[in-house]
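sry for the spam today, last one i promise. struct tokens for design, 274 residues
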């Protein structure tokens, strides 16, 4: 099937209409009353990352200050490791986290765009954050982000990205290969532990890659019809849907946050992950 081709004049008109929509939306968002506590849904897609996911959820559990009302939506398959993601979710619910699960089939799990479309359609939060399942957040990360969502980010309609502190790959692999901890568990003082590990680099904010994509849900509803992407053929790390989401939202912008640490890993295939 051939793609439909548009003339330059048609494309120019599409852009004009989109710009008008964005302008009106920004005015609406800027003038909207601000709640004392915003609702933030963190959407995590995971497969064979249960130990790193435990570290991530521990860091969310250990957040301090005036944080948003956080809902965590974890997409996964059944019986996907030891411990299973379901066991990790149940454990952290008992610790007090508000966790929802989006169950995927074996055929769907390689394509996180399917999960993100479901999560986006079903959310009722003010903001949504699409994140990888191997992140550890500074203890004041969400307090700082909450403050920004209520002030300088309240009328941002683009996809927002943030730098991540990506940790040394070999160090992380060796640590988790030799780790004898019984999971799931709460990893105490987890952000302080990650902060002391050797660093590979700090980057990613300008890209707004799929490991951190923050968006205003009202903006997604208006500009992208509350849909992450129309793309349904992502395959593991071949995630073209990340770029398409940014395009649907009119682009991307980098924001400044407190540190988020990436528990780096092998990239030879999903079955090798920890």
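last one done:
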């Amino acid at each position: 099937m051939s793609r439909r081709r548009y003339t330059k004049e048609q494309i120019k008109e599409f852009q004009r209409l989109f710009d008008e929509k964005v302008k009106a939306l920004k005015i609406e968002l800027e003038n909207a009353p601000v709640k004392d506590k915003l609702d933030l849904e963190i959407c995590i897609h995971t497969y064979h990352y249960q130990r790193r996911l435990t570290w991530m959820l521990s860091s969310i559990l250990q957040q301090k200050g005036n944080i948003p009302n956080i809902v965590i939506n974890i997409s996964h398959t059944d019986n996907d490791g030891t411990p299973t993601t379901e066991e990790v979710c149940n454990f952290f619910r008992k610790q007090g986290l508000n966790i929802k699960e989006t169950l995927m089939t074996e055929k769907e799990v390689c394509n996180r765009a399917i999960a993100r479309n479901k999560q986006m359609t079903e959310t009722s939060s003010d903001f949504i954050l699409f994140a990888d399942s191997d992140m550890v957040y500074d203890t004041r990360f969400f307090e700082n982000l909450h403050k920004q969502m209520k002030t300088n980010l309240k009328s941002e309609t683009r996809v927002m990205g943030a730098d991540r502190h990506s940790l040394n790959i070999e160090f992380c692999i060796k640590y988790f290969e030799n780790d004898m901890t019984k999971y799931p568990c709460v990893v105490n003082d987890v952000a302080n532990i990650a902060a002391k590990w050797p660093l590979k680099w700090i980057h990613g904010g300008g890209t707004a890659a799929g490991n951190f994509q923050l968006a205003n849900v009202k903006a997604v509803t208006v500009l992208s019809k509350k849909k992450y992407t129309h793309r349904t053929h992502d395959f593991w790390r071949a995630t073209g849907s990340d770029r398409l989401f940014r395009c649907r939202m009119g682009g991307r912008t980098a924001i400044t946050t407190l540190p988020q640490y990436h528990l780096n890993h092998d990239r030879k295939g999903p079955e090798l992950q920890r």
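The mean pLDDT is 90. ok im logging off now
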